[in-house]
Amino acid sequence: MVIVAAKLTGAEKKHAMVLLIVERGMEGFERGRNLKKMGMPAQDTAELFFNNVKVPKANVLGEPGRGFYYLMEGLAEERLISAVGSIANGRKAFDITRTYVMDRKLFGRPLAEQQNTQFRMAEMDAEIDLVQVYVDHCVAEHNAGRLTSNMGAKAKMMSSEVEWKMLDLGVQLHGGAGYMDEYPISRMFTDARVNRILAGSSEVMRLIIGRDVFSEHYKSILD
């Protein structure tokens, strides 16, 4: 089955939507081919076709017209879940890269002994740790029922950006090996590219944070 967010015909509000449970076998509903993606090949992403599908009233989720608001209610949590995954993946990429540069020899010495390697990896270790602390804070706030959309946006944006920064560095420090799929860092690189897009792109996260910064309700942490 799939949950379809559909515009409500004749509604006055532009965000009026209805959530419908559409099941396999319903007349007029077809699943098309799996789409070929840059990464995450194990995750199905397919075309869906709807041709005058009749959905029974029992398959309507919640109140018609409020579908958009139901979706919005889970956005902060969804972005926090994305942040948890991104920062964990960034740390995993760090560990993989650390092991590789300690083993890889360049000019007769381990790559880990080169100052550039040490400086870049030191920066990433610090950045990953700092974002991890904020993500952990957001998890605690969510558990206490205090997670806001602004907090979720900050966690999602920063974790996915730091993750991507680490994966790009990981591929670079692996050299030519980082471009080969037989090395985990290569597959992690392509799989993670979507994380700055899904659950709201980094640009959308900046819009959300920016609106809060210039709103009447803004409060500095120093206040």
Model description:
The chain is α+β, with helices and mostly antiparallel strands and 223 residues long. It is built from 6 helices and 7 strands, in the order E-E-E-E-E-H-H-E-E-H-H-H-H. The chain has helices at residues 67-73, 75-103, 115-143, 149-174, 184-192, 202-213, and strands at residues 2-7, 17-22, 29-34, 46-50, 60-61, 105-106, 109-110. The strands form 3 sheets. The protein has a 3-stranded antiparallel sheet, with no helix packed on it.
Structural topology:
Blueprint: E1 2-7, E2 17-22, E3 29-34, E4 46-50, E5 60-61, H1 67-73, H2 75-103, E6 105-106, E7 109-110, H3 115-143, H4 149-174, H5 184-192, H6 202-213
Antiparallel strand pairs: 1-2, 2-5, 3-4, 6-7
The helix tally amounts to 6
Specify the helix fraction band. 40-55%
Calculate Rg over CA atoms: 22 Å
Average the pLDDT over all residues and give the rounded result: 96
Indicate the multimeric state: single chain
What would you say about this model in short?
The chain has helices at 67-73, 75-103, 115-143, 149-174, 184-192, 202-213, and strands spanning 2-7, 17-22, 29-34, 46-50, 60-61, 105-106, 109-110. The protein is of the alpha+beta class.
